[in-house]
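Predict the 3D structure for this chain.
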Amino acid sequence: MTLVEPSTPAFDQRAFRDALGHFASGITIVSGTDHDGPIGFTCQSFYSVSMEPPLVSFSVMTTSTTYPRIRDTGRFAVNVLSHHQDRISSQFARKGTDKWAGVSWSETQAGNPVIDESAMWLDCELWAEHEAGDHFIVVGRVIQMSPAEWHRHDPLLFFRGAYRHLRDSAL
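Done. Predicted structure below.
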């Protein structure tokens, strides 16, 4: 007897992407510094992993040209963008441009760039990397974070293909 595999309909990647667009996420810039200077890319796939040890994670396309440069340094910062930084998000999402043009930033103790007026930042050492389909899942151990007085801005959000802002509502 020969088993016949059931046919699987073609997976609609656009419908999958549209469905995932119904999950609101914050926008981050993952940044680092190598021998050529500051580097970074826009990333909306960021989350906390563990409190002990303090771990966070982000996902990045395996085709990224910026992430391998960050990986080689063994450290990175995560800048959670503020509600008014949509221009910075778009600038860091483009390839082939000077992503740092017009962006004010300072350095962490480890030398990673942190973007001025971001909602908060975390400085990390590379902890682990896992290949998952067309992405790498990167885990970092937090070694420093923005001080409490830094946290004065609401975050920039992304929902259904557009930038969004928090709106206060009376309960």
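The radius of gyration is 18 Å.
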